[in-house]
């Protein structure tokens, strides 16, 4: 079949909207009509050429929602007409990791996902002119009106939830809330610091408020993010340009009687990752890395920081097990327990997708959503 898609031909070039070819689902796969997709900073990161798994030409996008239109042989988890959210972290429920219940990092299809291909080693997307295969991205490629995914990589969700809002649960919402609830297990009364008040950090803030955190301190270079952060539960703000970039740790220790119980790095900078660790409390403070730093970069700190009881951890997709937890997060939204609407600051058609990247780089949006 043919489908409209925004193609990333090469790094650092605007996407172009094309009519591309898409092969139907093979055994174990499903064809999904994407109704809406968010644009996450990770899409921009891969487009920048700094992602070691970035392969061009490809169809980016990993934060979508849509409807199953066709299923391949042997598919049992979903049927045509089901509403789904694509999962870049699938849940096979059979691999060592899924069975362990200790991590959400299902290994069933991770290696082919990182190579831009389906589990059988081929791509379903191609373009006649020029005659080329187009690579999948994070197993999702939601910047296409239609895409093909393995059945283990879709979460079936309720049908009354609006696509143009719940697409954000496909990454940002789940990543932020999940890092608090599933990864860190932040306790009521904890002091929490969030570095980066963007599409992820604001969801960490609303997660921290949801579980009853005491102080919720936001750190960002862009004061334009403060108003939204306060609306979501931020109690204190630290601007590194105001306190001095080398005094951020001290400023946070002063606000938290010696250090935060939890910190979350939602920027993707190795410098803020170090600050996030070092601002946590001696003896028990835990820092969670969420931000994705360019491949090749390394984090550092004095081992003494760990010897004296700080914990350095990371979180992918908020530690959420996609098929199990994503439908529950959709329920939280539909029951009014979390706010997604306010964070979607811009909505646009696919033809304007490059504007979504511009708004992100200019710090003018929280989330842009593209509707088909
Ligand atoms: P975003 O662009 O919406 O937000 C980033 C924020 O960081 C902005 O508000 C920006 O002003 C702020 N910032 C930049 N430099 C800073 C600094 N030195 N100190 C403090 N603040 C600074 O991006 P996003 O969509 O929220 O994504 C954030 C990061 O999380 C990215 O690295 C993204 O790739 C990553 N991410 C990780 C996961 C995961 O599963 N681990 C999931 C989604 C996104
Ligand atoms: N290819 C990248 C990996 C980047 C990365 O860490 N991705 C996160 C999700 S970001 C979503 O916006 C993730 O899920 N990581 C776990 C995994 O298995 O990829 C790189 O830098 O090499
Ligand atoms: Zn993302």
Automatic annotation (TrEMBL):
Q: Which UniProt keywords apply?
A: Metal-binding, NAD, Oxidoreductase, Zinc
Q: Quick check: keyword Glycoprotein in the entry?
A: no
Per its UniProt record, what Gene3D superfamilies does this chain match? Medium-chain alcohol dehydrogenases, catalytic domain, NAD(P)-binding Rossmann-like Domain
Q: Which reaction does it catalyse?
A: a primary alcohol + NAD(+) = an aldehyde + NADH + H(+); S-nitrosoglutathione + NADH + H(+) = S-(hydroxysulfenamide)glutathione + NAD(+); a secondary alcohol + NAD(+) = a ketone + NADH + H(+); S-(hydroxymethyl)glutathione + NADP(+) = S-formylglutathione + NADPH + H(+)
Q: Per its UniProt record, what Pfam families does this chain match?
A: ADH_N, ADH_zinc_N
Cofactor(s), names only, from the UniProt record: Zn(2+)
Q: Which family is this protein grouped under?
A: Belongs to the zinc-containing alcohol dehydrogenase family. Class-III subfamily.
Q: What is the name of this protein?
A: S-(hydroxymethyl)glutathione dehydrogenase
Originating species: Muricoccus vinaceus
């Amino acid at each position: 079949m043919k489908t409209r898609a925004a193609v990333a031909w090469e790094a650092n070039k605007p996407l172009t909207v094309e009519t591309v070819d898409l092969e139907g689902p093979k055994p174990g796969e499903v064809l999904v009509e994407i109704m809406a997709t968010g644009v996450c900073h990770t899409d921009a990161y891969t487009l920048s050429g700094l992602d070691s798994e970035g392969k061009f030409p490809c169809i980016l996008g990993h934060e979508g929602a849509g409807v199953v239109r066709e299923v391949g042989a042997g598919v049992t988890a979903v049927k045509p007409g089901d509403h789904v959210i694509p999962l870049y972290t699938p849940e096979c429920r059979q691999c060592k990791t899924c069975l362990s219940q200790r991590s959400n990092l299902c290994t069933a299809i991770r290696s082919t996902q990182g190579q831009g291909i389906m589990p059988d080693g081929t791509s379903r997307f191609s373009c006649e002119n020029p005659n080329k295969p187009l690579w999948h991205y994070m197993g999702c490629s939601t910047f296409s009106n239609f895409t093909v995914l393995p059945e283990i990589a879709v979460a079936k969700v309720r049908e009354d939830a609006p696509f143009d809002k719940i697409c954000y649960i496909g990454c940002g919402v789940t990543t932020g809330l999940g890092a608090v609830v599933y990864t860190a297990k932040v306790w009521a009364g904890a002091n929490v610091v969030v570095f980066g008040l963007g599409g992820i950090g604001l969801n960490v803030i609303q997660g921290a408020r949801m579980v009853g955190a005491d102080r919720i301190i936001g750190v960002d270079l862009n004061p334009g993010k403060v108003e939204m952060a306060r609306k979501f539960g931020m109690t204190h703000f630290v601007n590194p340009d105001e306190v001095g970039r080398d005094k951020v740790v001290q400023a946070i220790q002063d606000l938290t009687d010696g250090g935060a119980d939890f910190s979350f790095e939602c920027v993707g900078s190795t410098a803020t990752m170090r600050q996030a660790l070092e601002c946590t409390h001696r003896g028990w403070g835990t820092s969670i890395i969420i931000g994705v730093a360019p491949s090749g970069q390394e984090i550092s700190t004095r081992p003494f920081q760990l010897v004296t009881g700080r914990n350095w951890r990371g979180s992918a997709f908020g530690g959420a097990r996609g098929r199990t937890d994503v439908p529950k997060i959709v329920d939280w939204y539909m029951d009014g327990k979390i706010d997604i609407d306010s964070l979607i600051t811009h909505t646009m058609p696919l033809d304007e997708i490059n504007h979504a990247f511009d708004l992100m780089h200019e710090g003018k949006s929280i989330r842009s959503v593209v509707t088909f």
